[in-house]
Amino acid sequence: MAKKPILRGDEREVVYSAEHWRLLHALRERAILIMRALERRGIPSITHGSLARGDVTPQSDIDIVIPMVIPTFKVEMVIEELGLPIISKRIVQATPFHVLKAHIELEGNTVVTIPLTPLTSREREFYKFGGEVALRDLEKGRRVPGVDKRLMLIVPSPQGHRERPIIGMEEEAARTVGVSLDIVKERVRVLVRRDTIGRTGVYLKEEIPLDESFENALRRIADRDPAVRRLMMSRGCYP
Length: 239
Hints:
- With 239 residues, the protein is α+β, with helices and mostly antiparallel strands.
- It has a domain of 158 residues: 2-Layer Sandwich (Beta Polymerase, domain 2).
- 40% of the residues lie in helices and 22% in strands.
- The chain has 9 helices and 11 strands.
- The strands form 2 sheets. A 7-stranded mixed beta sheet has the order 7-2-3-6-5-4-11. Strands 1-10-9-8 form a 4-stranded antiparallel beta sheet.
- A hairpin with a 3-residue loop joins strand 5 and strand 6.
- The longest helix has 23 residues.
- It is globular, with a radius of gyration of 18 Å.
- It starts with 11 loop residues before the first strand and ends in a 5-residue tail after the last helix.
- The mean pLDDT is 93.
């Protein structure tokens, strides 16, 4: 069930159980395995969301992002070297105006994302809004503040975390997380609207053959889709 935005409420303390800490450690260890392998190949990466904040559940995904455009075959080579089977490959775009992304889905609710077009500053901030950590942060056990899909600000504490709604406190949330007020207002608008009218889906979500490169598939899509072609041209990456 999708998490609904919480519009008001008091701050509360959440204390993690021993099982919660074990789950967080296990999920982070899997992320570290992949991120270390990427780093050895000179590919920096981050993970974001509940894994960065610490408020994981058994359903939590491991989301690893390479925050720059690189040849996707390099990432696939790292995954193959680790012996991790690729379940699916998809090209995703939220709207015709947003970044095009390659999603590589692995076992264990793990997704590696590579932007296929350069990220705008706002798109880059999206990950920090939810909380993001790099490899060194994970290795040190560091957790960071971020906002979840309920629009709750999650602030790590020694026992677990503190949480409170950000609506009406957008400026404080922006300062705490370290992002612009604009991205906070945008995410509030998007998530409240989604709760009101329901999830409307994404503009593009196309599965591609495992043996096809993302770059070749993107060219095929751009040839048939003027909106994709315009986005690529506007970001200087249409051949």
